[in-house]
């Protein structure tokens, strides 16, 4: 089985978000970039398929050369090879078209992406990919078993979960649950050394449609001060929620 | 020309997000001079949609579509879009809508913008405001394709009434076995429980509650308020609560009217996921807890004393106000 894990390079979850150039660009100053958390769960699940079922695991990202430390980290965690499409990720449709080309050329049976990137939160790439490639698709996937050509996936639904039976070739939008938090793989020294020798292929982008453009950004309005209520006067809290906030 | 809206239902009844999506569709239609057509699957009271500005309902009655299937539903919606010459397609932010919208986007090569929180800022060019960076910012996104898909955030635009008499037309899409190549074989959902996605009020507990045995009061508070229960990440990592209750940047997003955080410190990753909630209440023993900077109302106190008292007071309040 040949697996591709799509890796999105995102600001670390503790990052403060700022914008520059008249609020038209995300300010990367002082921001630490990491593997998108949803993709980290997917990558660890891919490692499980590698260890238990002899899968080959590649990772791919669409991004400039500055994303290479993040891909190297994925190699250090245990992916066999990496592909970087040398283009700024303009929007979900653009990224999906680039990845679709990688997938067509690589002949992957299973594509693991995240349900969303935690930066732009598009939640688009895996679904668009499945439409472009006519591959089966399970989103918000929290468990995945592969047996030969058959796949059984569990996806999170509002208020519960659903088991889905499908087959390869398959693409999933993964998230926490795919593996347990405590089982997440972190690179060790040996992995980091080995990653330096692994193949990282840079390919040029294909011509692709861009459907959307972020024309400007804005930060949320600053919050007013909290109203504190005495723990011995909870009637006041109820009153405020009822008459002022009008939420109960 | 029309604005198409996917109106979700469950067991024949429309969900609240269907009315919100329809209200949004009506606003877009007003701005571009079009009318709203809804696509509804096996719903009973289709004329209800007229109240929210829908002028036509394409109703599908089909056993095979009783259970949600993203690929099949997306195919039906794209056929409806073609039939209605739709320039804009509106969906909600439910898990199911977020599953099918990118499929539509890929097959129609239509620009899709998710998590939209306000009516379009302009329709030529077509620009919408969405949350980005896990609620730490907003983006104004321009959609350049002829067909546009908009995912409306829960509770952001709200429901507005614009009464019309909706005509109801039955719609027979062409679907086949290949559309069900990912097949639902089991659904496991607690009956009668309010879900985080649908809830107006969410009651959430953190590590300050010390252990799973103390969640009785959280559930009771939620029950009194008709709320859904949620938790912080470590609480679900330690299996005190199911993973499906984990909210925050890497968990479920919360966009309720009221979010009550009990024994939660207010880490940046937690706040990112819940900040779309309108009113936030924090109950924490530590006055220095960062959550107090993000909350509207706060109680500095021991949850084990405050919560039981709050439950009693709320019961009295409910008894007087119903
Ligand atoms: C990559 C990454 C992603 C993350 N994503 C998320 C996410 O999506 N969601 C999330 O929640 N976290 C997330 N986190 C974790 C986050 O950083 C915090 O560790 C977490 O939110 C803390 O949970 P907590 O507030 O329940 O626990 P704590 O930080 O331990 O806080 C417990 C609070 O309870 C209070 N308390 C103690 N006793 C009482 C009492 N008797 N009565 C009242 N209050 C009391 C304390 O004063 C304290 O403020 C993420 C972290 C990382 C690194
Ligand atoms: N630039 C990118 N390169 C590779 N994969 C990506 C990229 N952007 C998004 N993805 C994948 O698509 C998933 C969903 O991303 P998004 O649609 O941006 O929310 C991510 O979790 C990744 O797996």
Describe this protein's structure.
- The complex is a heterodimer of chains A (248) and B (322).
- Chain A contains 6 helices and 15 strands.
- With 248 residues, chain A is α/β, with parallel strands linked by helices.
- Chain A has a single domain (2-219), classed as Rossmann fold (3-Layer(aba) Sandwich), CATH 3.40.50.620.
- In chain A, the strands form 3 sheets. In chain A, strands 11-10-9-12-8-1-6-7-13 form a 9-stranded mixed sheet, sandwiched between helices. A two-stranded antiparallel sheet of chain A has the order 2-5. In chain A, strands 3-4 form a two-stranded antiparallel ribbon.
- In chain A, α2 packs across α5 (189-197) and α3 (92-106) crosses α4 (125-133).
- Chain A is globular, with a radius of gyration of 21 Å.
- The mean pLDDT of chain A is 97.
- Chain B is built from 8 helices and 18 strands.
- Chains A and B meet through α3, α4, β9, β10 and β11 of A and α2, α3, β7, β9 and β10 of B.
- The structure holds flavin-adenine dinucleotide and adenosine monophosphate.
- Flavin-adenine dinucleotide is lined by residues 206-208, 232-235, 248-251, 263-265, 267, 269-270, 273, 283-286, 289, 302-304 of chain B.
């Amino acid at each position: 089985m040949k697996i591709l894990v799509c890796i999105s390079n995102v600001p670390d979850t503790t990052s403060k978000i700022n914008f520059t150039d008249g609020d038209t660009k995300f300010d990367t100053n002082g921001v630490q970039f990491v593997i998108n958390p949803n993709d980290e769960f997917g990558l660890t699940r891919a490692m499980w398929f590698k260890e238990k079922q002899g899968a080959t695991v590649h990772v791919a990202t669409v991004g400039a050369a500055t994303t290479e430390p993040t891909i190297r980290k994925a190699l250090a965690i245990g992916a066999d090879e990496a592909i970087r499409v040398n283009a700024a990720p303009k929007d979900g449709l653009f990224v999906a078209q680039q990845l679709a080309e990688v997938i067509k050329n690589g002949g992957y049976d299973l594509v693991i992406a995240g349900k969303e990137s935690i930066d732009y939160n598009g939640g688009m790439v895996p679904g668009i990919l499945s439409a472009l490639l006519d591959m089966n698709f399970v989103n918000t996937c929290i468990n995945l078993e592969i047996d030969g050509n058959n796949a059984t996936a569990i996806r999170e639904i509002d208020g519960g979960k659903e088991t889905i039976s499908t087959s390869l070739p398959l693409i999933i939008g993964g998230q926490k649950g795919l593996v347990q938090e405590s089982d997440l793989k972190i690179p060790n020294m040996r992995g980091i050394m080995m990653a330096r020798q692994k193949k990282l292929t840079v390919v040029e982008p294909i011509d692709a449609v861009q459907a959307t453009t972020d024309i400007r950004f804005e930060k949320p309005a600053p919050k007013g001060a909290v109203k504190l209520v005495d723990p011995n006067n909870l009637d006041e809290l109820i009153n405020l929620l009822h008459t002022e906030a009008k939420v109960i | 020309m029309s604005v198409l809206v996917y109106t979700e239902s469950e067991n024949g009844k429309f969900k609240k997000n269907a009315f919100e999506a329809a209200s949004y569709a009506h606003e877009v239609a007003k701005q571009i001079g079009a009318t709203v057509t809804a696509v509804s699957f096996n719903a009973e009271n289709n004329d209800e949609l007229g109240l929210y500005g829908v002028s036509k309902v394409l109703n599908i009655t089909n056993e095979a579509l009783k259970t949600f299937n993203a690929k099949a539903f997306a195919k039906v919606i794209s056929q409806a879009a073609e039939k209605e010459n739709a320039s804009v397609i509106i969906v909600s932010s439910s898990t199911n809508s977020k599953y099918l919208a990118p499929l539509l986007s890929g097959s129609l090569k239509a620009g899709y913008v998710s998590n939209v929180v306000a009516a379009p800022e302009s329709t030529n060019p077509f620009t919408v405001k969405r949350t980005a960076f896990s609620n730490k910012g907003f983006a104004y996104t321009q959609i350049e394709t002829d067909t546009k898909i908009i995912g409306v955030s829960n509770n952001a635009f709200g429901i507005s009434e614009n009464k019309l008499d909706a005509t109801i037309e039955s719609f027979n899409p062409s679907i086949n076995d290949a559309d069900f190549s990912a097949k639902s074989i089991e659904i496991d959902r607690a009956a009668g429980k309010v879900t985080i996605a649908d809830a107006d009020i969410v009651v959430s507990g953190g590590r300050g509650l010390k252990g799973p045995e103390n969640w009785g009061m959280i559930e009771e508070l939620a029950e009194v308020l008709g709320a859904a229960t949620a938790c912080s990440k470590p609480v679900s990592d330690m299996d005190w609560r199911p993973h499906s209750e984990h909210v925050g940047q890497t968990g479920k997003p919360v966009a309720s009217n009221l979010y009550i955080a009990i024994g939660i410190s207010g880490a940046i990753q937690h706040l990112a996921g819940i900040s779309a909630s309108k009113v936030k209440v924090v109950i924490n023993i530590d006055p220095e807890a960062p959550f107090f900077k993000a909350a509207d109302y706060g109680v500095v106190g021991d949850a084990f004393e405050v919560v039981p008292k709050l439950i009693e007071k709320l019961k009295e309040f409910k008894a007087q106000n119903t």
